[in-house]
Design a protein that fits this description.
11% of the residues lie in helices and 37% in strands. With 175 residues, the protein is mainly beta. The strands form two sheets. Strands 1-6-7-8-5 form a five-stranded antiparallel beta sheet, with no helix packed on it. A five-stranded antiparallel beta sheet has the order 2-3-4-9-10. Strand 6 and strand 7 form a beta hairpin.
Length: 175
């Protein structure tokens, strides 16, 4: 059994490119109560990417004017984990918000766990995370994200106006 240590920091402190989210939030929300949209396994890493909607939207003074003009109310992003081991998945992605818990392990690793109702996803990874494909959109009444998105990255903005299909490796395999 791997030794577990208390995670002393907020998840954003483990993120290599935290400045992107810190520009949008005065206080980046925790990964509690996020809407898990998908997860992508990349065998070349081995790596795993969670696509999630954060639980709160940035304040009106932090978002670009076009987001407000379009009535956006949801921020979506990918959280990329590398050196993934000990992966366990049971069930199907729930439609309700989930909590992503992180626990520090020895040797600069973390235990990542999502456990809600009939779904469980857990794995260990490096404690160095990357966020990417940050986008803003207006969620539908049914909770769908299959609507136009506005991306933070200029490259994403040039390539996509909404979420691409899962076959689009440049979106789902690279953060």
């Amino acid at each position: 059994m791997k030794e577990r240590l208390a995670l002393a920091s907020h998840w954003i402190d483990l993120t290599r490119n935290s400045h992107v989210l810190e520009a949008l939030y005065s206080d980046v929300p925790p990964l509690a109560s996020v809407r898990l949209r998908s997860f992508h396994l990349d065998w070349r890493g081995p790596a795993l990417t969670l696509r999630t909607d954060l639980p709160t939207y940035p304040g009106p003074d932090r978002v670009p004017p076009e987001w407000s003009e379009r009535g956006h109310d949801t921020l979506q992003l990918h959280v990329h984990f590398t050196a993934v081991e000990d992966l366990t998945v049971h069930g199907w992605i729930p439609t309700v918000p989930v909590g992503v818990s992180l626990a520090a392990l020895t040797y600069r690793r973390i235990l990542v766990r999502i456990a809600e109702a009939d779904f469980e996803l857990s794995f260990t990874s490096s404690n160095s995370l990357t966020v990417g494909h940050i986008s803003s959109y207006r969620i539908t009444e049914t909770g769908s994200d299959e609507v136009p998105h506005t991306f933070v990255s200029r490259l994403d903005t040039r390539m996509f106006t909404s979420l691409p299909g899962t076959h689009e490796s440049t979106f789902y395999e690279r953060v």
